[in-house]
Design a protein that fits this description.
Layout (H helix, E strand, L loop, with lengths): L6 H11 L4 E4 H8 L7 E6 L4 H11 L1 E5 L2 E5 L6 E5 L12 E5 L2 E5 L2 H12 L6 H17 L9 H7 L1
Parallel strand pairs: 2-5
Antiparallel strand pairs: 1-2, 3-4, 4-5, 6-7
Helix pairs in contact: 2-4, 4-5
Length: about 160
């Protein structure tokens, strides 16, 4: 991934300096538990009460785009895109997060079960692009290959699409 601006380090440093609680989820969360695949996205959730502070602080240093359920953060010169999930369903993931390796860094990552739940929600979201839902299914399949006992957590409509 091309990042001539040290975007990720600067973003993480800003969150740490401001005491903003976050954890990784999404595809990079899956990468923390299963065989990694290349992704230019880093999905995180930030504590709801700290989101306005985070958005204001990040907006001073990076490009921000607000969407109905996310805030996207980027920097010129970096291919990495950070997507902050604003859906309140993700906030409890912070409580169960633990430090794992992501993109060569030790970061707080949602628990295995929470990463899976996030992927299930994404795969079932009819408003999500079909190509994104296919990637979500592939991520669920990667988790099931590494952790077969999770199969009982997968809704039947998703299991049928994994065949």
């Amino acid at each position: 991934m091309a990042d001539r601006t040290d975007f990720l380090s600067r973003l993480l440093e800003l969150l740490a300096e401001r005491g903003i609680r976050y954890c990784v989820l999404g595809g990079q969360g899956v990468n923390a538990y299963a065989e990694p695949v290349v992704s230019l996205d880093l999905d995180i959730v930030i504590a709801v009460d700290q989101l306005p502070k985070a958005e204001q602080s990040l907006g001073q240093k990076f490009s921000i785009q607000r969407f109905p359920h996310s805030v996207n953060v980027s920097a010129a010169g970096s291919d990495l895109r950070v997507q902050i999930q604003t859906d309140p369903r993700y906030e409890p993931f912070l409580l169960r997060a633990s430090v794992r390796e992501v993109l060569g860094l030790r970061l707080p990552v949602a628990s295995l079960e929470d990463v899976l739940q996030g992927k299930i929600w994404a795969a079932q979201d009819p408003a999500r692009r079909a190509s994104k839902r296919q990637k979500d299914l592939a991520d669920i399949a990667r988790l099931l290959e590494a952790y077969p006992h999770l199969r009982e957590r997968i809704p039947s409509d998703i299991l049928a699409r994994l065949v």
